[in-house]
Amino acid sequence: GIQGLLDAAKALAMTVVDLVANPEIVIKVKEEFEQNK
């Protein structure tokens, strides 16, 4: 229930922090996304 929601929110927040800290990850993800279209 709520604990799962909190865990998901934490995971999402960590992902955002990683993306902000590592802009090259964003570029890689975008490139992969474009290739997978």
Q: What structural class should be given to the helix and strand makeup?
A: mainly alpha
**Termini distance?**
35 Å
Number of helices: 2
- In helices, the fraction of residues equals over 70%
What overall geometry do the principal axes of the alpha carbons give?
A: elongated
Report the β-strand fraction as a percent range.
under 5%
Low-pLDDT stretches are none
**SSE string, helices as H and strands as E:** HH
Q: Tally of extended strands?
A: 0
Biggest pleated sheet? none
User: What is the count of distinct domains?
Assistant: 1
Gyration radius from CA atoms, angstroms = 13 Å
Mean pLDDT: 91
What's the layout of helices and strands?
Elements: H1 2-21, H2 23-35
Question: What attributes characterize this protein structure?
Answer:
mainly alpha, 37 residues
Short account of what is shown:
The protein is mainly α. It is built from two helices and no strands. The protein has one domain.
